[in-house]
Design a protein that fits this description.
single chain
């Protein structure tokens, strides 16, 4: 604990700060321009070890629990990623950008939640807050990466189908 506070104030800070960080950063990220998120940049690039998303299914069984995660974007008039609507290229490209937005928003939330360590007693409460930050954001990051890898594979398949049809 970097700041010494009475227990009642720590509880109030946690009750106010945790949802404020989650919801505030979600709101901010839905307002950022799409042009800010570059799917080909280093952070969002699909790695070979991700195996077009298969890694996330084989290691984390992501399909078993992905439906339980909330998509906060629609709460703030953002792009809903819960259902895939069409195989139109422009939609898939937008969906990919939105997975970048979601991934970065969850990194920001994870970092934002780590500030709660400043007022939570160490080690027990501090470790609980760090664990919460990781457990509430890493599954969402994994889902964004899984979805983006699969969407990229879909684009490759669509290109292949179009190229074969042109022959």
């Amino acid at each position: 604990m970097l700041v010494e506070l009475p227990p009642w104030l720590i509880v109030i800070l946690n009750v106010v700060a945790v949802p404020s960080i989650h919801l505030g950063l979600s709101w901010i990220y839905t307002r950022l321009p799409s042009s800010r998120f570059k799917p080909k940049s280093f952070l969002y690039r699909t790695r070979s070890w991700e195996k077009s998303g298969a890694f996330y299914q084989s290691v984390f069984a992501i399909r078993n629990w992905k439906g339980m995660l909330p998509d906060a974007a629609p709460w703030f008039d953002g792009f809903a990623k819960g259902n895939f609507k069409t195989k139109e290229r422009s939609y898939i490209d937008r969906f990919i950008v939105e997975t970048c937005r979601g991934e970065e928003a969850h990194y920001a939330q994870l970092i934002g939640l780590l500030i709660t360590v400043m007022w939570n007693p160490w080690p027990i409460a501090g470790i609980i807050m760090i664990s919460y930050a990781l457990l509430s954001n890493l599954p969402c990051v994994l889902l964004q990466r899984f979805t983006r890898a699969r969407l990229r594979r879909l684009l490759i398949n669509l290109n292949s189908i179009e190229n074969n049809a042109l022959r």
